[in-house]
Amino acid sequence: MILVTGGAGFIGSNFVLDWFQHSDEPIINLDKLTYAGNLQNLKSLAGDDRHRFVKGDIGDIELVKTILAQERPRAIINFAAESHVDRSILGPEEFISTNIVGTYRLLEATRWYFTQAPSALQEQFRFLHVSTDEVYGSLSPSDPAFAETNRYEPNSPYSATKAASDHIVRAYHHTYGIPVLTTNCSNNYGPYHFPEKLIPLCIHNALAGKELPIYGDGQQIRDWLYVKDHCSAIRCVVERGRVGETYNVGGWNEMANIDVVKTVCSVLDTLKPKADGSSYASQIVFVKDRPGHDRRYAIDASKICEELNWKPAETFETGILKTVRWYLDNPDWIANVTSGAYQNWLNLQYGNSPQP
Ligand code: NAD
Ligand code: DAU
């Protein structure tokens, strides 16, 4: 049994689905179901005994202790976070609550569980913290890619809270001996990506005939990784990573935002051409820049490749094709997410939160 937190979000739900393609080991999935959590992502697991969902907060120490005592997981994988940079700029408080205080409380419950666990479980146990490349700050065009040894220079409220959580995780290893691992990954894309983020937003807006907003000059560079490749990296690290280490995860795929959006448009032009024959790229508009916008991220993933023999299976060309196809094949998912209908459903379904 493993405990996954934030397993109803974008990467977490992809991870849960991917896990069961490789293993029958059960997962208990603890998620607060914020606006970003969506149980529809996991509807293919309905009636599957391997997956057990608990609606709750990683910051609820008593709830987490109860889950740990009852389920006795051999690993915890912490995806739960507030994840959107623009929201952190509008209001950092939730980011501080979940990403910093929530992670600290999850670690406190873990410490309580770990210190009284039998030695066989202690030897096996791992706490994997899922983090981001944004903790390293912004690169100039000629800088080498981020290595695990780069100093932390977070620039947004989001990345500052993720950086703080990484440090707390590290401290729980050095001070209390909790067997932690941390992954710092680049930008993910793929199915179930909430349409507030660049790629799903542009797919959604393109199909809805709306503008595709590019911040500033569109020359900001991100490294893009297909979400399933992030999932396989996390499985590698939790099984074979060296305790106390951090591993950078990336796709060797640096692209300027404008090129990402133009690629999305050209895939859409092929798969679902517009009736008037024009390209979706004609919907691109340049808008006001994000405050403090980091110019370039790039990941040196050689440590995880060399130590753990991990490499991504998808290129950007294959991954973006799969992604756009998924959105075209799942209009109901997008419609529910954007209409907020699934939130109404949650209120009905979870008026009485299930407890373990
Ligand atoms: P997301 O916003 O899609 O999902 C976050 C999930 O966490 C949601 O299901 C939400 O309901 C849940 N959650 C939020 N607060 C919670 C709390 N207090 N208790 C329990 N659950 C809570 O995020 P994502 O894009 O899937 O990112 C997952 C993790 O990966 C985050 O830690 C993020 O920092 C990290 N990450 C994301 C990316 C990316 O490109 N999306 C890249 C690198 C790292
Ligand atoms: O690098 C990893 C990070 O990637 C994760 O830690 C974050 O959780 C995840 O949200 C993502 O952060 P970004 O800020 O890079 O992702 P986003 O999709 O919001 O933006 C990608 C780039 O596109 C960024 O440079 C901002 C730009 N952008 C974004 C939006 C939403 C636009 O130009 N227009 C937009 O409308």
* Heterogens: nicotinamide-adenine-dinucleotide, 2'deoxy-thymidine-5'-diphospho-alpha-D-glucose
Q: Give the termini separation.
A: 14 Å
CATH architecture of the domain at 2-190 and 223-254 and 292-314: 3-Layer(aba) Sandwich
Question: How many DSSP-defined strands?
Answer: 12
- The topology string of helices and strands comes to EHEEHEHHHEHEEHEEHEEHEHHHH
Morphology: globular
Contiguous uncertain segments of 5+ residues: none
Could you explain the architecture of this structure?
This protein has 356 residues and is α/β, with parallel strands linked by helices. The chain has a domain at 2-190 and 223-254 and 292-314: Rossmann fold. The chain contains 13 helices and twelve strands. The protein has helices at residues 10-22, 61-71, 85-90, 93-115, 119-124, 157-176, 198-207, 227-240, 257-271, 302-308, 316-329, 331-339, 341-349; strands spanning 2-5, 27-31, 51-55, 75-78, 126-132, 180-185, 187-189, 212-215, 221-226, 246-249, 254-256, 284-287. The strands form three sheets. A seven-stranded parallel sheet has the order 3-2-1-4-5-6-10, with helices on both faces. Strands 7-9-11 form a three-stranded mixed sheet. Strands 8-12 form a two-stranded parallel sheet. Strand 1, helix 1 and strand 2 (27-31) form a beta-alpha-beta unit. The longest helix has 23 residues, at 93-115. The protein is globular and about 65 Å long. Nicotinamide-adenine-dinucleotide (NAD) binds next to helix 1, strand 2, helix 4, strand 5 and strand 7.
